[in-house]
Task: structure prediction
Amino acid sequence: MDSSTATRRPAPSAARHALVGAGVLAAGLLLGVATPYLPIVLPLPPFTMINDSSALWCAAALGMGAALARLRTGFVLPAGALFLVASVVGYYGFTVTAFPGGATLADVDRWLLPAWAWLAAACAAGPVLALAGTWLVRDVPRWLRLGALGLLGGVFLAESLGVLVDEVMLALSPIPFPPDDGWRLRWYVDVGVQAVVGLLLPLVASRRRADRLPALGAALLTAVVWSAGVELVWRVLMPPM
Result:
């Protein structure tokens, strides 16, 4: 083999990273496109909340990081951002053109600002979630392992905590509750199931028995921090009109 042929042929590691990157991109796009249909195909909580929740996307990014744990961290970090950015592009690219009949596409104010906000969140959270996903698999110090387990459960608990805070604030405000035709009970069931998922995931994903109770504590702490952080980000990116 001459040197010119050798230089034209990519190294196996480069080819592998390119293939994995394409898979990450495809998986993100598929998640985004599938999101509107998940509540229809799987009409059970927590899937019924996916259109109003980021927890499943966060869990998917963690899972993607765990799947890429054998690759170097310098690849996993941008892969996490790519996965969630592709999910956002797939979701908005599909929904604004397909529902309802393309009419949403003309209503730019309705989808463009949220799309940019979600893209910014994907770029910031994707690398963190993917890196934490690798800690679920890699041999890392215990505090990193507990942090990853806490994040896995905390993103679900944070959603439930946010709903609880909203309900308390609404109960204390002079604004009357909207008419209830049963949706509130269904909403509470969904939120309750999501909280149970958040409590169970650290226990199931923990590979060491001694980590399980500390992982629950980490999940509760993560839920508080994550919920407060998300609220702050949305207030900055999408201030009240």
Residues 19-35+49-138 form one domain. The chain has two domains: 19-35+49-138, 141-241. The first helix runs from residue 3 to 8. The two ends are 66 Å apart (CA to CA).
